[in-house]
Write a structure and sequence with these properties.
Layout: H1 2-7, H2 10-42, H3 46-51, H4 63-74, E1 85-87, E2 90-96, H5 104-107, E3 109-116, E4 123-130, E5 135-141, E6 144-146, H6 150-158
Antiparallel strand pairs: 1-6, 2-5, 3-4
InterPro entries: DAACS, Na-dicarboxylate_symporter, Na:dicarbo_symporter_sf
GO cellular component, one term: plasma membrane
Family: Belongs to the dicarboxylate/amino acid:cation symporter (DAACS) (TC 2.A.23) family.
Length: about 160
């Protein structure tokens, strides 16, 4: 290839170089468009995000836990176990209970309001129970999830 390119004159060589760069840019552009369309259709990781959220919609796992899990998965303690399990921090919710000395009026409120009908003659009273939600904290615990620890196997193979 190099000797054939060296035998060409400068004009033909530059035209071939421009054609090569244009071909590269065009195929890269098409690949980006196909990638964007496929991501829009498939939504990769969407199921995993729904699985890892609590009722409020916030992710349970912190980014620090995810990074530390990656580092732990790089060096599996058991290579055979790494073929079907990978380390993953489990976060279990713990509901904080309030103090027993708190008064009922602070933790449990009832709001009463009235609504008139169209005529304005009949008033219906409604009672709305306002109780604050319990405070939930998450405790990190070591655990494993199903799936191959590819990162650990690759790092082991490379060393």
């Amino acid at each position: 290839l190099m000797s054939g390119l060296a035998a060409l004159d400068a004009k033909t060589s530059s035209r071939l170089g421009i054609f090569t760069i244009a071909y590269y840019l065009w195929t890269t552009f098409v690949a980006v468009i196909v990638g964007i369309v496929m991501v829009s259709i498939i939504h990769p990781g969407g199921a995993a995000q729904k699985e890892n959220t609590d009722q409020s919609g916030k992710p349970i796992m912190s980014s620090a836990d995810a990074l530390l899990d990656l580092i732990r998965n790089m060096f599996p303690s058991n290579l055979v176990e790494a073929t079907f399990k990978q380390y993953r921090t489990k976060n279990s919710p713990i509901v904080k209970t309030g103090k027993a000395s708190q008064s009922e009026s602070i933790t449990h409120r009832i709001l009463v309001y009235g609504i008139q009908d169209e005529n304005g003659s009949n008033i219906q009273n409604f009672a709305l129970d306002i109780t604050p939600p319990p405070e939930v904290i998450y405790k990190s615990e070591p655990g494993f999830s199903e799936g191959m620890n590819v990162l650990g196997i690759v790092i082991f193979s490379a060393t």
